[in-house]
Amino acid sequence: MARAMTDGGHPAPASTMMTAEGVPLKVSLRRAERRRRLTAFLLAVPVLVFILVTFVVPIADMALNSVRNPEIATHLPETAAALQEWDGEGVPGEPVFAALAKDLAAAAEARTSGLVGARLNYEISGMRSTIQRAARRADRLEAPFREAFIELDDIWGDPVTWRVIKRESHPYTPSFFLAALDRTYDDEGNIVKVASNQEIYVPLFMRTLWISLAITALTLLLGFPIAYLMAHLPMRTGNLLMILVLLPFWTSLLVRTTSWIVLLQQQGVINDILVWVGVIGDDGRLTMVHNLNGTIVAMTHILLPFMVLPLYSVMRTIPPVYMRAARSLGANQWTAFWRVYVPQTTPGIGAGGVLVFILAVGYYITPALVGGQSGQMISNYIAYHMQRSLNWGLAAALGTILLAGVVALYYLYNKIIGVDRLKLG
Amino acid sequence: MAVPTYAGPLERTWYYAFRFICALIFFFLIAPILVVVPLSFNAEPYFTFTREMLTFDPDGYSLRWYRDFWTSDSWMSSIRNSFLIATGATVVATVLGTLAALGLSRSHMPFRATIMGILISPMIVPLIISAAGMFFFYSRIGLAQTYLGIILAHAALGTPFVVITVTATLSGFDYSLTRAAANLGADPTTTFFKVTMPLILPGVISGALFAFITSLDEVVIVLFLASVEQRTIPREMWSGIREAISPTILAVATILITISVLLLVSLEFLRRRNERLRGIRE
Predict the structure, then answer these.
(1) How far is B166 from chain A (nearest CA, A)?
(2) A209 Cβ under 8 Å from any chain B Cβ
(3) Domains in chain B, please, with CATH?
(4) What is this structure's pTM?
(5) How far is A188 from chain B (nearest CA, A)?
(6) What is the ipTM of this complex?
(7) pLDDT tens digit sequence for A3-17
(8) What is the DSSP secondary structure assignment for residue B106, as one 8-state letter?
(9) Domains in chain A and their CATH numbers?
(10) What is the pLDDT of residues B39-59, one digit of tens each?
(11) H or E element in which residue A192 lies
């Protein structure tokens, strides 16, 4: 509106207030407002661009990796094209095999046959060597190619092989997500659950969830009493005790994890004390680390400050008069505490709980160092597929599922509590 | 919170039992950190107290793991790397984060919630996911296995801390002071450096400290992005724990604990100064 008036150059009605320059006051104010909004926004632009480029784009790119499937489409282009004609029944005809021979010869030349082999190996185990062998001889194969290939390896005569190649020749695939959810294709191409003894990731997600829930519950159980104590002691004593919470918070994660190994291992401090006291014999030393117990104890210790700090800041603001009123109205100590005090701490419990849970679900370092086999979480498998098995598509799919969960929680947290109210130290 | 005079014997018992439980929890929090300090002076390559140590025999104690640390090339280069990377990341995060906080704390900021959400996200996204994403992307643009790559990655992780602390400091900021400065003829730059900056400095410094310690303690991204050349202290500790476990890491741990105590003290000092500065104004 304002823009139309000024840009159009229509004189404002005489009754409007004017500034010294002769512009209607309303317009001038609106313009100033717009300029201030722009300045405020411009201040945030550099950091926004920075975070987008260094952080958001890389993660979005990784998420796309979970559906990207370029190997067959790029490195076996003619085969992929020839397979479009094929109806999926029986073994494809000679043109497909001829295209495959041509593609494989080219792939061997360009040294890309390994990529194709690795990709197909995720779907049919053993395909890596089959492809390598075929690629090595591809330029010496002669027509009829169909017979030549089947003579090389029976697998080329199996319709299932061809259905898989056709399916995966599309540049995008859901197969990594299917694998991440313990689903697979059967021979007819239907999505089915994998055999129950091969289920890995769904149980792993479940275990990650319950470990995180257990840790959240433990931090609440341990954090609530000390937050309560600190909030109700005189300021000076409370602050002194706060140092005992903040020191672990500020101490390196690796240091705290090391400490727990020192304490919990078989030749460690706690076992030594137990042997010395006589609770256990020297040969009956407890295995407390490099298993699930190690993960839970160490992570509870590491995440406890994240529960105590929000609880404490909420408890400080609860006026003591409600408790006194409850007592004077006849409630006993427990009733007053449970029915009057605890409900007032729910914002703190919510904030601390969501924070601890979010952090726990994605934890990597501590489970990797003290978790042994039974204390591994989803992050550890993501790292495994990133670094060892090099199945990046699967790593990305697992990561995307984890990220979606965390983002959903973060959104909830933001809606309920607001990131602005996040306090540090 | 003393025992009320009207408390019965049950309440009295509970009062002391509660204190005892709290003492145990505080012990759980602090003991694991303190236990490594004496163990780092162990004369033997064990991770537990030897008989000599328990009887306070001077022979049971030694500085050999500190000497080990001090004479090891890989540990020394990891210190250099850690401080180089942490300093670089802190500078980037502090400058960018402070600018953003200045914008975000104005009432005229458009899309405030969305921008805040994006800026805080590096703190919330699991590190393994950030590391995986950065690994692919930085490799493609040639930033993997370079100092610059790790500095940028750590700066991204540190930025939310600066944004949060500086925004918090600015929430009590009295804008009539900047208007007064402008009224007295100062241009915006002068106003910023002479009026705004000194007042928000405690917030900026504590944000910078958070960013610094985040980088100093970060290992997942270093695991994915760094080559042998860029190994940092936590990266060395990681291999120390995983591969060759020697009490040298206890010596390093003790040094790091000392650093965190120093940081804690300086933060507390800043907090008090901040309160004092605000106290003057109010």
Answers:
(1) 11
(2) no
(3) 73-245 (1.10.3720.10)
(4) 0.85
(5) 34
(6) 0.86
(7) 444 444 455 455 677
(8) S
(9) 2-8+22-65 (no CATH), 71-171 (no CATH), 201-421 (1.10.3720.10)
(10) 888 887 777 777 777 777 777
(11) strand A191-193
